[in-house]
Structure formats: C-alpha cells, structure tokens
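Re: Re: token formats

Sure, here are both.
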Amino acid sequence: MNSNISAGTVLVTHVGSSNDVRQAALMIDSLRTFGGSMSDIPVLVFEDEDHPVHRGEFSWEGVTVHGLARPEGVVPYTLDSKVYACATAEELLQDNCESMIWIAPDCMIVNTPILFQLGDDCDGALRPVHITNIGSLAEKPADAFWEGVFQAAGVDDIIVEEPLLAWLS
C-alpha cells in the first residue's frame, strides 16, 4: 500500500464485484464533475484480494486501488468488507488526513460534499441511509444499539443536527 498519502479529506470506498466497479466509477466521475472545491480529493478504492477488480476502471488522478484481506480466522459476515476497508484506510492514512469519508460505491455526488469536512472540534459523523432499518430518528434518543456503539467508541457528547449525527470524544 502507498503509505505516503497525505490530504485534508480522503474518500474511501470498497468494490467487491464488477457491478461495484461500474458503480464506483460513476461515483468517482460524479465527484470529479460535481464535487466543486472537493472534486480533486484523493480516493482510496479497496478491493477484495481474493476477487481483484479491473484497476484500469479507476484512471483518475488521485485514485488508488488497494487490496483488502480479511484477517485470518475471522468468519465472514454481512458488510465485513466495509468494516475492513475503513479500518485498513485508517491504518494506511494514520495521521496524514483530517477527514476520512466512507461512501458506498452506488452513491452519486451531485454537489460539493462539504458537510463531510468535520473540522477539529468533531471526531466523527454519520448519516444512516437506512433510517428505519439501522438508524434512529433524530428527534428520539439513541437506541440500545447506538448507545453501545457510542460507549465502545468513548463518545462523550452527541450532536444531532440534520443531515448528520456527529460526536465528540
């Protein structure tokens, strides 16, 4: 992996199939076309090492493709590649970026994604897309699942502000 990536904001995604590759290519093209002041941020694309994708699909400046291996002995589970991609990106970037944005390959960017630049006073933010499945309504207290996540992450303060849920630790 290229360990000298350094930037203010870095976008991270994972591709696990040829369909994901097509979708990620459209997402990156939409970032480069409509991303405004963030259109040229670095993009890290992670691919499963046991199912490599066509790296030629990602020929934009600032886009790098990295292999992603599951830890040995870990039983695969739904969405695990996304977790490993984020953890690997954090390890790769370490202290070399200010904000790491996770985005699914099937998303489109139609405006500058400025809300994802968090600044020094915020440690993380999320916007669950499946509010009725895994998210919580902003006007209600966090449920037991999210309370457990916040506790495990050492979150001291939660700020609910549409369209993001941000936290300080």
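Second one below.
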Amino acid sequence: MNIHPTAIVSPKAKLAESVTVGPFAIIDESCEIGENCVIAARAHVEYTVMGSSNYIGEGAMIGAAPQDLKYHNEPSMVKIGSNNVIREYASIHRATHEGAATVLGDSNFLLTMVHIAHDCVIGNKNTIINNVGMSGHVTLDNCAVISGYALIHQHVRIGSYVMLGGGSKIVKDVPPFMMIDGNPSQIHGLNKVGLKRNGFTPERIKILEHLYTHFFRDKSLLFADAVEKIEETIPMNEDVKYFLEFIKNSQRGVSR
C-alpha cells in the first residue's frame, strides 16, 4: 500500500495491497477498498465497500450520513463497483435504513461537486456532469448523460441511454433512449447521437423512432392507447420490451 504519512486510515479498514491514499485523506474503520483504488488528498471515505480501480478525487465525501430526518444512526452503507471515476468534492451519502445501501455500479464518471443522495441506485457507464443534484431514492439505469446543474427529484427513475440537458428540473420518470431538457422539463426527441455512440444499429434506431412517434408525437393518443399501438405495430425486440416495462412500472408518472 502507498499511504501518505498525513493520511488517517483506521487499522480496522480493509485495504487491498495496491491501494493509494493521498495526503490528509481519511478512511474509517467501516470501509473495504479493492485493488488499484486511489483515494486522493483530503477525501473522506466511511461506511463504504468498493471494488477495484476506482478513483476518489480530492475532497470527495463518500459514505456520509444521509441528509434525511428519518435517519437515526442506523448502520447503512455505500456500495461502489469497479472502474469508477469520482472527481473532486463529489459526495455520495449512505442509505437511510438499517442494512440498506446507496449503490454505484461500474465504469461511471462523476464530475466535480456531483451529489448522490441517500438510497440512490446508479447503474453502469453513466456520465454525471458538474453540480448535478440527485435527491434520495433516485434510480439511474445505464449509459446515460446527466448534464451539469440538473436537479432530480426524489424517487425519480431515469432510463438507459438518456441525454438530460443542463439545468433541467426532473420531477417525473424519464423513459429510456430519449433527450429531455428544460424547467419544466420536456422530451425533445430520440437520443440518436447517444444511441449511435453506444453501438445501436440503424435498424434498432429505426424501430425506436417509430416508438417515439406513437408515444410522444401523436398527441391524440392517451397513455394506454399509445402503449397498445406500440404493442400492436412495432416489432417486440429487447429495446421495446424495456421501454414498455419502464413506462408501465413508473411510480411518479412519465415525462412526455
């Protein structure tokens, strides 16, 4: 281990041999840190289990107590996968209830001052830009881009391959594959650039274009009618199944 002499690391913390800990960083006893992780200067990690090859930036706060009046010091955690980059002064708070966890998956990129609140569940390969505020119990699926200064309400779910515009206010669920922007926020089309960058073929994108037209552009169709038309007229591949599962199970209502 490469631990700077000014760092404070609990002897009860479990650190892999290849971990690097920078000046004045603090790692509390309730932590497990995997191979090749870097904890930069003045970062503070507590109540956290993380996999390998994560970078925790300068001044980041990982595992702090939730900002939730229902919390009364119950033992809870932050669970982080592997290959994440969490830049300077980002914060991820642990869950509110005993035995629960705030979760960050693999290969995510969190920029400066991003805040992930208690009980959030973040998937894989997401990019979250500077100063995003993500309230408690938010779910973010995979491969989305959340632009800077976006504000996301509690219990919102954001689907995979979404492009969320800077400064947006999100109070309803955001279906997968879409672009959304504004305050109040609105869907502005299919995220074609993001889909192409993630390897979607022209055929897959064409099917999603038809889906978008039925659900978002045809204003004469009510929610149930749009779903029925999609089920009747569009080939039922995995993308369409995922979209329909998402909107049918929405708890906060779907952004349209």
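The chain is about 15% helix and 30% strand. The chain has a mean pLDDT of 96.
- S.
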